[in-house]
Amino acid sequence: MTDNATINIESHKLFILGADLLASGFIQQKPEDAKKLFKQLKRGEKIDVGTLNSEVTGGVIALKLDLERSQYRGQFNYPNFETSLKALLQKFATELRKDNELKDLRTLTNDQSGGVLFNLPSGVQVGDDINVLMMAVEPTEGCLTVRLIFMEPDQFNA
Question: What is the total count of domains within the chain?
Fold first, then answer.
């Protein structure tokens, strides 16, 4: 994608794209392949996961997967990550069942970057530690990045 290219994608399509990417990368994958992907994310790598083709312009944009875990509490290993990811995907599935067309999808948009954070936090407790995982989709460095973000869990306390 060139620096001045613009691709407009509706937020519900970004949501489906991100959820499908996570499910195919971790749930529908052989366990050893999912663990390999996790290790790459744990090392801080942005992983190339494919391309997205525009039906309107014919343009192609690279897709990447990224993880922000600076707010993660406790031991960060594959079983704990998998538990958090499955809880997030379950929350996504529930949202889709409630609103099949995702007309009421809650998002937060960064007007400067064009990124979209899906306001569907998923909290998981492992031992004494509570972690909250969310998903964002952001245009970055000539590509579209699906970013998993562990959020500061205290901000979600009632």
Answer: 1
pLDDT tens-digit map of 47-60:
999 998 877 777 88
Range list of H helices, the chain: 11-22, 31-42, 78-98
Q: What is the pTM of this model?
A: 0.88
| Encoded amino acid at 147, one letter | R
In a domain, 74, yes or no: yes
For β-strands 60-68 and 143-151, DSSP reports them as parallel
pLDDT at 42: 97
Backbone angles phi, psi at 138, to 5 degrees: -135, 140
Average pLDDT over residues 137-148: 91
Host domain of residue 100: 11-156
Which long-range contacts does 36-45 make (Cβ < 8 Å, 24+ apart)? Answer: 37/65, 38/78, 38/81, 38/82, 39/78, 41/65, 41/66, 41/67, 41/148, 42/67, 42/69, 42/76, 42/81
